[in-house]
Amino acid sequence: MKLYHATSSPNSRRVRILLAEKGLTPTLIPVDLGKGEQHGDAYRAINPRRVVPVLVLDDGMVIGEVPVIGRYLDDIHPSPSLFGTTPVQQAVISMWDRRIEQEGFASVMEAIRNKAPGLKSRAIAGPHDYGQIPALVERSTQRVKNLFADMNARLAEAPYAAGESFSVADITLLVTVDFAAKAIDLPIPEELSALRRWYDAVSMRASAAA
After folding, report:
1. Which of 40, 147, 161, 163 is the most core-located residue (most Cβ within 10 A)?
2. From start to end of the chain, where are the E strands?
């Protein structure tokens, strides 16, 4: 397998952490987003959506979208499972992962893409150009703050985002927290002790450096 990724891409990092948790080592092929390599003909032939990451299988099949890549990798390498092994576990993990991605990860992305001068006509990643809407920045930032508070309450009840064990939901939350701190200068507030306890623990996992 080959993983086309970018070291600066939070979405790419989500997949790299999952790979590290499973001990998988596909060939990593960097895509230079700063130079616009994702818009070049060579990469567009692989992924017309012009985003990273994508997983290319040995037979040439291309799989895009982070949750789909993760689900595929978990299916073909089920141990350790990061998506759950029973229907209930799978449902709960997917529920929390979706909430974190929609309310947190996507909101950080929306905030920075509608703010960064270099993304003036690229407010949404993908094959089409969209202008920035500066008014979205404040709302998106507030959504991230709300997610942090919600997850603090959740993590006061459970050791991990989706319950008793580390899962893909924790990967999404870890990357969201780091993304928010770096991209929109929004670290975990000191008073959110449960979220901070969780963050300190999962940041120590070897995969977190992926």
Report:
1. 161
2. 2-5, 27-30, 54-56, 62-64
**E-state strands within 118-192:** none
- The CA distance from 89 to 67, in Å, is 16
pTM greater than 0.90: yes
For the chain, how far is it from start to end, CA to CA, in angstroms? 17
The predicted-structure confidence for 126-155, as pLDDT tens digits, reads as follows 999 999 999 999 999 999 999 999 999 999
The position carrying tokens 């299916």 is 75
Question: Are 55 and 69 spatial neighbours (Cβ–Cβ below 8 Å)?
Answer: yes
DSSP conformational letter for 189: P
Long-range contact pairs involving 114-119 (C-beta distance under 8 Å, separation at least 24): 114/140, 115/184
User: Cα separations (Å) of 186 from 114, 116, 189, 200?
Assistant: 16, 15, 8, 16
DSSP string spanning 76-113? Answer: HS-SS-SS-SSHHHHHHHHHHHHHHIIIIIHHHHHHHH
User: What is the Cα 87 distance to its own chain's centre?
Assistant: 23
Band (34; pLDDT cuts 50, 70, 90): very high
| Tokens encoding 186 | 């929004």
Cα–Cα distances (Å) from 15 to 28, 54, 200, in that order, read: 11, 9, 20
What are the CA-CA distances from residue 137 to residues 44, 74, 140, 179, 195 (Å)?
Answer: 29, 35, 5, 15, 23
